Amino acid sequence: MVHDLAACLPQRVEAWAFRTDIRFVEFFGLPGIGKTTASSRLADSLRRCGPLIGEVKVAWGRRTFIGRQINRVGIVVPRLMDRRFRSVIVRIARFVIQSGQESILDAVRVIWNFSVLVAFIENERSKSYSIVVMDQGLLQGFWSILLKSKRRTTSETWLEILSAIGIHDMVFVHLRGEMGLARDRLLTRDDRSSRMQRASPGSGPDLWSAADCACREMAADLGREMRAQDHAGALAMIDVERLATPEVVAERAFEKVLACLDRHRLGELADQRV
Fold first, then answer.
1. Among 236, 230, 237, CA closest to 267
2. Which of 261, 263, 231 is nearest to 18 (CA)?
3. Are 46 and 133 within 8 A, CB to CB?
């Protein structure tokens, strides 16, 4: 069970002990592996830390379909005045088109979703200090593109575009588990929000194998990229077993995220002393 760290830490510990320039905690993994549940419980655990962490919120929140679309337009349109934002979106659009999606509609949907996500991240970066927890985000978006890609050769890699968006203030949490576990959980859902649910019945085993392979390769590539760069955010790996409860997974994520925040804080202090 997660304890209230703000209450149990000694008084000599600074009130903002875990505050760093980390602004986003993004979950990543196979559909059905438990990202939404874990992210919600992690946000609750971080809030219990009180001033040690600062304000914590979950991205997007609950809205109707119409409400979500209005909110998305309101996020993207003002950002179109920003040259840097437009440049990033052009690069994303080129990457999506070159990757060869299943249809034009599919490509447009992916580009729009990415535009909303990047605009949202830029908006949150411009606000006062807070940590935003996302059940899925940039990595999940690139994974979705690569999963349905017909061509692997693009003028830029997904890592280059991710670096252009900026990962210095992000902690990525990779939930790793058996693809059979994720598939079984996904089959119990009533909605068809995931590409894995909308896939043709005959593509099942091969598609899940490709999805699992893409997740692991992306996490490995991101880990190498972060080790090669200074202050490039953080990557936490969480193993999800079939018998692991949502509470156990959230507890593991909480411990890993706090460790990432602490390492980042120590790195910032070391830089200040130089």
1. 230
2. 261
3. yes
What b/e readout covers 203-223, taking b as 16+ CB neighbours within 10 angstroms? eeeebbeebbebbeebbeebe
- What phi, psi does 175 have (nearest 5°)? -85, 115
Model pTM? 0.85
Dihedral, CA of residue 64, residue 68, residue 74 and residue 75, to nearest 10: 140
At residue 235, what is the residue type? L
Taking every pair of Cα atoms in the chain, the longest distance, rounded to a whole number of angstroms, is 61
Judge contact between 87 and 44, C-beta under 8 A.
no
Q: How many CB atoms lie within 10 A of CB 42?
A: 26
Mean pLDDT over residues 203-224, rounded?
86
Percent of the chain whose pLDDT exceeds 90 = 45
Instruction: Identify the burial level of 260 via C-beta atoms within 10 angstroms of its C-beta, where 0-12 means exposed, 13-18 middle and 19 or more buried.
Output: buried
From 238, 231, 87, select the one nearest 167 (Cα to Cα).
Answer: 231
List Cβ neighbours of 249 (8 Å cut-off, separation of 6 or more).
34, 37, 38, 175, 238, 240
